[in-house]
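Team,

Forwarding the record for the chain on the shared tracking sheet. I've put the sequence and predicted structure together so nobody has to dig through attachments.
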Amino acid sequence: MKPAAPVTSTRMTEANHPAGPGPAPATHRHTFVRPDQPLFALIGKAPEVLSVAMEIDVVLPCLNEAGALPWVLSRMPNGFRPIVADNGSTDDSAAIAVAHGARVVHVPQRGFGAACHAGLLAASSDIVCVMDADASFDPGDLPLVAGPVATDAADLMLGRRTPQGQRTQGTWPLHARIGNRVLAAELRRRVGVPVRDLGPMRAARREDLLALNLTDRRFGYPLEMVVRAAEAGWRIAETAVPYYPREGKSKVTGTVRGTVRTITDMRRVLASITPAPATAAAKPHAKPHAEAPASALTAQVTS
């Protein structure tokens, strides 16, 4: 079951924003990549370093998520400011978001990447998080991905989905899990990024993300972010985050057609990569690499 939804944000009160029950448990072409450059690690737990004074914008790409937004927005931690990037919703998503204290950005260009990028442009904080608005993630877990970026332990932090509850099929359909594994394996083979999940919950510094010049505005956007980050020599890490049954039907994994369309978009991104020879010079803008904590490297090997 999802956690209860107490109002935790300083922008909301229990009186004017009662917590909802949430969903019931149920059912540019890339020129080269240097696989030897980025530092990768699996981080088990984010350090408790986020200050209540720190403000982090959270981009929530949204298309008809009226049923999920009350629970999602009521779970937003202190210091995390929701930006709902509305991608043409025909329900009350925008009005509900405003009523729950979120900033709403209307995105006329259709596409998951278009919504994410519009939210990124609208953000103003140093660190920016991105997560789905369908109640499949608990915003209370955002510090798990934001923390390592804030402490400079990682440049791009991904949340690796761990399905919750006994009915995993309802949380993450088999065809979607297979598609995700295929793409993750291809990513490891093509660019040397040993991630196990292209997690939709992630965090990075805003200016650095904008400097990647991402161009995909469809479902390839999350993958392009990882590929371009690897190309730039970023330290990419992942940590486990709970993954719950979403509210309503998924636009991506709810149908085989949606999953195939997503894989097609992502394969187009992969096809544009031309790996560089191992002897190629490092990019001048590549980030310096810090040593990973021993515990993080151990987790990568043993988990």
